[in-house]
Each structure stands twice: as structure tokens, then as C-alpha cells.
Write a structure and sequence with these properties.
The chain is mostly helical. Helices cover 67% and strands 0% of the residues. Helix 1 packs across helix 5. Keywords: Phosphopantetheine, Phosphoprotein.
Amino acid sequence: MDTSKDAIVTWCQEYLADLLQVPAGAVDPHADFDRLGVDSALAVSLLMEVEERYGVELPPEELFADPTLDAVAEYLHTHAERSVA
């Protein structure tokens, strides 16, 4: 599985776009979740999916400290590389 930051962002955009029923291109990876219409329930759903998909535990406080897909992807990319190394 590709754990590059770009691949993670793309997967997260597609996942949230499906939940929000918008095109993936409409999900700005740099926008705060609030601006995207992502409430806490959707954020927790994303959290659970990325943990299952990438095998990296993403603490909720990390998710909400910088609630953007870019920050989520950076965290996952960094920690996925550590778990492989």
C-alpha cells in the first residue's frame, strides 16, 4: 500500500467526498474540517477508517489539534514509515 503523503490525502479526499456526497476535488486538504462540513461524527469515522486502513493509531487529540486532511496525511505518513522501519 502506498503510504506517501499524496496517496493518503487522495484516499482521505475520496473517503470524505463519499460521506459528504460531493466530488473528491471539492474536498480541500488544507481546509479545516468545519469549513468542509465535517462534524465530529464524520471526523471520528475518518479516524477509525485510517487506523484500519493504514495500521496507525491516530489519537483524537492529534486529529483535532490541526483538523485538516493535510495534517492527517502528514501524521499517518510519518508514523506508517516508522512502523515499517
